[in-house]
Model the fold of this input.
Amino acid sequence: MWNNFVSSFFRADIGIGQESVLSPILSTLCIAPIFHIFKKRWKNLFQNSSISFLSFIDNNLFILQDKSFKKLNTFLFYSYNIISSLFDWFGLIVEYEKSEIFHFFRSIKNFKPPSLDLTLLRDSILQLKDTWKYLGFIFNRKLFFQQHICFYSNKALSTIKNMKILGNSTSSLLLFHKQLLYKICVLSITLYGLPL
Done:
């Protein structure tokens, strides 16, 4: 349906694979109205607090800021409830198993915020994570990137070590081929976190 035009009905029971170029376009078309409705409902419920979210294809992220963890968990509870009901209404699924909660906290003192209790919505509690991975980046609570650097530097070093076996039994790779492999495989990991 587009404005006053309504097409004839047809079956749409064939899915589109993740590697398809249509996948990000269709997921954006499906999810954008949900976020639009969500923002309106959020403003009606909590006029003095703001929520923002990032979406990259099917990876969605809520961002809330407050000094009180209890208040944050209340906001997260309501936002999870609203978004999961909207997804159900649109015929989509929120994969609870992939849902995560993560708090950034700059203070040096002990960090013990409560977990997010979703037992009223479903039979589960979202436990806090020590590190969080989003789109290839590994974050910790204080935004120090030691885990990210260690993970990808180890991955790059193991890739270099594994390149040794690419030569044959009589001779190793030519210098040109080693440089090419380094630029394609190792630099993409260290600079961008791209998998091989």
The mean pLDDT is 78.
